[in-house]
Amino acid sequence: MPAATPVPVSTADLEHLTWLGVDPDAAAHSATEQARRGLKATPPAHSYYDYDVALSLVSGGLGIAIVPALAVLGVLPDGVKAVSLPGLGTRRLIARHRTTRSEPRKEVLTVLDAIIASAAELDTNV
Prior knowledge:
Blueprint: E1 21-22, H1 29-36, E2 47-48, H2 51-59, H3 106-121
Parallel strand pairs: 1-2
């Protein structure tokens, strides 16, 4: 969200903010629409397809956007602050593998362990 915007404490605080729209073919479209569902937010005046554009629009004060935490790791553009807000949803990864006498193989378990360790290290309070 724009750096000058007060930090929301609940999803109700997002209701009167200007939201950026997301191209229907973009990955963030369904997440944004799900978050906006139930809010009395006005229709977006601007939209984006990729996260760099979203962050540029936010930097310019044109609205707020929902982007994955990985899109805001590291340095944020001037004028942008990242806020993690409970109630906006989460992403879940599911790994499927065979379970037999010889499965899962050591390689599969090693990859799964690495994914779990990496996810545990992510800062969820971006």
